[in-house]
């Protein structure tokens, strides 16, 4: 069943972590991050633990506030957030030229929102790869409800080391997922390996733009807040992703920061100055209500201890993302299509 009520949110906090261990998981998670004295190397060496703790802690908040697809989108005036998210998924399918019968890989598939939409839009069979067990459980349940469970499936594994033979897929995509990789080149190399020759990989990447100044303290703080609030070991520059693709052997067909094509800023739903009835839960008032409900539910034992702390670092993430968007030092919409050459 789709879970989008406040009690579902409370019951889901911690995912597969034992409810009595949620608070200590929050502690461990926070300490990985620069805002709490953590270091990039530690986050990279322990990326599986760091990223899985993050998604166990936040997935029910994401479902409650954002829906089944956990990503941003460029947005046109008059479009709702949900419509823009769906269009962004269709755009990816079109750029990959998906055809009925194609065997497609979704790298870091979340709870399968994009997978369900893209498979229905393109009549393809999609394998969702994800290393988070709680999300896989949710994804399977939602696929069964949407009746796409005969054509699409999920595999629990690390995208740095996939359990697929070489040259398996007709197409691969990653939506705001490979930003969690400890080494972006190694993650692209692994995707290259499982693609058939002549076939394409497309992605939306989270990146620092050329406006980011690594010696500027305000910029550093915004970057650290985004890493903390989103389970990231390190946010790369757009140019580093491009170099990594080429080094992995891909021929880059086109690449662009799609924030330039977004008349409505991608971060608007998180901006506390913005009010929207259709995304009410994301507004300042909606978040205030959620904060108070979580506090009450934690107090009476219906939400695990530590739930308020999770809400706290997600609020920090939202602030960091809005500042990153306004200053244009950060983009979650760096897009590329890259082809594995026919003869390798
Ligand atoms: C921001 S979510 C995006 C999910 C999905 N693409 C969507 O747009 O709804 C990132 C996803 O990447 C997955 N992920 C992160 N690191 C991973 C890894 N090393 N191997 C497999 N999946 C990973 C997370 O578990 C999560 O599902």
Automatic annotation (TrEMBL):
Q: E.C. number, please?
A: 2.1.1.-
* MF-aspect GO terms: sterol 24-C-methyltransferase activity
Name the pathway: Steroid biosynthesis; sterol biosynthesis
InterPro entries xrefs: Erg6_SMT_methyltransf, Methyltransf_11, MeTrfase_SMT, SAM-dependent_MTases_sf, Sterol_MeTrfase_C
Keyword Cell inner membrane among record annotations: no
Q: Which GO terms describe its cellular component?
A: endoplasmic reticulum
Q: Which family does it belong to?
A: Belongs to the class I-like SAM-binding methyltransferase superfamily. Erg6/SMT family.
Q: Record's superkingdom?
A: Eukaryota
In which organism is this protein found?
Trapa natans
Protein name as annotated: Methyltransferase
Listed Pfam families: Methyltransf_11, Sterol_MT_C
Which ranges carry the SAM-dependent methyltransferase Erg6/SMT-type domain? Answer: 54-341
Q: Which GO terms describe its biological process?
A: methylation; sterol biosynthetic process
The record's SUPFAM superfamilies line, in alphabetical order, gives:
S-adenosyl-L-methionine-dependent methyltransferases
Keywords noted in UniProt: Lipid biosynthesis, Lipid metabolism, Methyltransferase, S-adenosyl-L-methionine, Steroid biosynthesis, Steroid metabolism, Sterol biosynthesis, Sterol metabolism, Transferase
Q: PANTHER family, per this entry?
A: HYPOTHETICAL LOC100005854, ZGC:194242
